[in-house]
């Protein structure tokens, strides 16, 4: 049974899918700010944030293409696959206190271990 992501991948380019994902993320973050911090962001602020984050994402992607040396060696994988007809999202984050930067990555895989999406 196709999920929303499958349907989107059939209809839009990968760049458009990245943009849609970033807008959806910004909407979710806005929702959290309203619920947990009682702060308001206008729709135009949400879109500005999404565009800025997308630009940062593309810059990071470009830097990765330029850097051909692996920074991490592969070790034994502890990943376990989800139940049939489920997907699994694994994420990790890093904080650089000195530069006041935070990074987050997410990988979504199906029950066969195939990557469906990554940010």
TrEMBL record:
Domain of life: Eukaryota
InterPro entries, per database record: RNase_H-like_EbsB-rel
Name of the protein in its database record: RNase H type-1 domain-containing protein
């Amino acid at each position: 049974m196709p999920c929303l992501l499958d349907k989107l991948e059939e209809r839009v380019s990968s760049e458009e899918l990245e943009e849609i994902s970033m807008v959806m993320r910004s909407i979710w973050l806005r929702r959290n700010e309203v619920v947990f911090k009682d702060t308001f962001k206008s729709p135009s602020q949400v879109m500005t944030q999404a565009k800025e984050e997308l630009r940062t994402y593309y810059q990071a992607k470009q830097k990765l293409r330029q850097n051909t040396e692996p920074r991490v060696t592969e070790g034994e994988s502890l990943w376990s696959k989800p139940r049939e007809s489920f997907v699994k999202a694994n994420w990790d984050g890093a904080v650089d206190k000195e530069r006041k930067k935070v990074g987050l990555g997410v990988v979504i895989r199906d029950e066969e271990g195939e990557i469906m999406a990554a940010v």
